Amino acid sequence: MREPPANFPTPVAIAGCGATTAVGRGVEALRSALRANSSGLRACEKFDSPRFQSKITGAIPQTGNDNDNPAWQFATDALEEARSSALEILKKIPAERIGLVLSTTKANIAALERISENRLCSETARRHLQGNFLAADLAAAHGARGPVQCVSVACVSGLVAIQQAAKLIQRGAADAVFVVGVDTLSNFVMAGFTALKAIDPNGCRPFDKDRCGLSPGEAGAAIVLVGQASSLCSSKSQLDRQDACPTIKILGWGGSNDANHLTGPSRDGSGLARAIRSALKMSKLLPAEIDYINAHGTGTPYNDAMESIALKNVFGEACPPFSGAKGMLGHTLGAAGVVETILCAIAMQEKFLPGTPRLNTIAEGVPAGLVREPRSVAKINRVLKLNTGFGGANGALILGHE
Amino acid sequence: MNISMNELKANIIESLRLQDITPEKIDDDAPLFGTGLGLDSIDALELVVMLERDYGIVIKDIAEGRPAFQSVRTLADFIAVKRPK
Amino acid sequence: MNKIFIAATSKVAAADLPSARLGPRFARLDLQSQMALLAVESLGVDFQEFSPDRVAVCLAAKIGSLSTDVEFWNGRDGAGGPSPTLFAYTLPSAAIGEIAIRHKLTGPNLCFVDDDKILLSEAADLIQRGEADYCVCVSCAVVTAAAAELIQIPPETGACAVFLQRGEGLRELTEFDRDMKSLCANFCRPKISG
User: Residue C177's pLDDT is what?
Assistant: First the structure.
């Protein structure tokens, strides 16, 4: 067994990102939406049916094309943007040293729907029902000939994918890894959440006293992680941009399982609290050193209440400012951990705290630090990202900015 | 029309795929949730599906079903009232 | 740095299911969760011996949750609508959830959609990094007839499990231990009965 370096010396940093979400294509659209605290949730006519609890979803604005492989499309759009934004660094890394980790819960589930209804479905679309093939093909199409993995840990998948990518770099198995998160809005998922009666008919309102469910969403998101070896940043030719050297690092992470119930979180939030503590420990940080927390905040009564308890458990009365983005994008499942980490990176770069779109009245029991509207801050250098998922999974990731 | 308690219990067992239990073993008044049969929130949703499938009753809001789900007897009473004629 | 050891292995097949008695909810579980639970049970490990938050659960699901996905989707037009229970299992990591619930294991989780060639090394890495002290590794290959037809591969139903720990065990885990099936076949302990 190859032994990892004793002190895990290789810092891992974000070299570029890309995204396609309910607020539009591109990281720029995300930045604008964050600044404006706007919501991309809207009525989506194809879900206007008594089969579904609501037609309000976080759908990616489309031109109405009948795509048999939306998972491939969204992942590719995001990955192309991410690669382009990390172009200078990637140029220096051979393909064999570039890996890819895909995070998805349902891959190209559209193919199952189409085949079952005898609608046109290409062999590639069918092939991408399987996440490992989607991952392999994305890697091949985007010049990643290093290690490839497909992870699927419910709604915590995105954070797990980032951790897996960081570990590949720290073990020396790759110098750069594309972390791709994708999940698509489908009748499958709409029918499933409807059966669980988990959808807010009027659109989700995380941490609101009138919240009553989630809003399904879709997204493709990609992050280029690189080992922050000095050689990548030391030489600055006249072509190097000032900000070419990646400065937002992955400091640490933690994961746990509630071991309680398949779809309901542990009421006492102890599992999530433990994941947060593990992340703090790996990052060598105290709770008080966290500047901002991006919550999971689905808008279901149970999740947001549990998260509030977990935050109080770890941070006591001194909870750092925190907010939730699912009122903007909906719950993007396997893409959530990746796209919401991109939101954190944007906020860290531009030094502002994101707000909580669609919040009206803050629910009782929510810690005092909830940020309603975005606001500029002098310091947002240590950020904690949280996600929880079905099957009792909890994940925490800590980012650092110098 | 009277609801057959035995048939209702059989529907519950089938719907929730309960193992090693027969209608005779289910007490009419025993709690369904928490103690008694020890059902949980997803089971409640499955019972909602069962009500529509086997009795034609549509429950829009899970809160509507909660009082009915106390015991087999309360469920039978609920069905007797709500069942489409 | 402590070496990682294989402390127990198991291998189960569909034929082992009818005699399985793993709690009153067993019949509610989807096939993949049933096979995974059975494989873990057959390890013969007493999990009470360990601190629960130091035991990781890692899974490799050959086709993700596709077998259950197909079952859920095919049942959507039944009177009353699709099954909420079944939807909860349309995630490859649902099996991890069931293992965690049954054995009260609260450590970190990993779940790969693929065969199991990287599972043992990733699990060992978790232990090496100190994120866990023990790891239950489960490899599931659950391809029902309907799923087989959909993605055009042969049907199969099988699972195997390996329990990893530091310091001592049956033998040391090496970098050549990539094929879990043959590893488990070679080392198999007698299955727990009843």
Answer: 85
Q: Indicate whether A188 and A266 sit together in one domain.
A: no
The verdict on whether A319 is a catalytic residue reads: no
Are both A356 and A288 inside the same structural domain?
yes
CB of A118 within 8 Å of any CB in chain C? no
Specify whether the CB–CB gap between A108 and A171 falls below 8 A: no
For the CA atoms of A197, A198, A204, A209, the dihedral, rounded to the nearest 10 degrees, stands at: 90
Full domain range(s) for residue A161: 12-232
**Of A134, A129, A133, A132, nearest in space to A186 by CA:** A129
Q: Does residue A299 lie in a domain region?
A: yes
What is the spatial distance between Cα A133 and Cα C32, in angstroms, rounded to a whole number?
20
> What interface predicted TM-score (ipTM) does this complex get?
0.96
Structure tokens at C12: 């189960």
Closest by CA to A133, choosing from C89, C159, C152, C142, is C152
Contact B46 C26 (CB under 8 A): no
User: Into how many domains does chain C fold?
Assistant: 1
Q: Which residue do the tokens 């040293």 mark? A: A97
Domain at A360, CATH number: 3.40.47.10
Interface of B with C in 34-53 (CB under 8 A): 38, 42-43, 45-46, 48-53
What are the respective helix, strand and coil percentages of chain C, to the nearest 5? Answer: 35, 25, 40
Question: Which residue of the set A128, A142, A331, A401 is catalytic?
Answer: A331
Average pLDDT of the segment spanning A6-19: 82
Q: What is the pLDDT of residues B45-78, one digit of tens each?
A: 999 999 999 999 988 777 888 889 999 999 999 9
Q: Which pLDDT belongs to residue A9?
A: 61
Domain count, chain A: 2
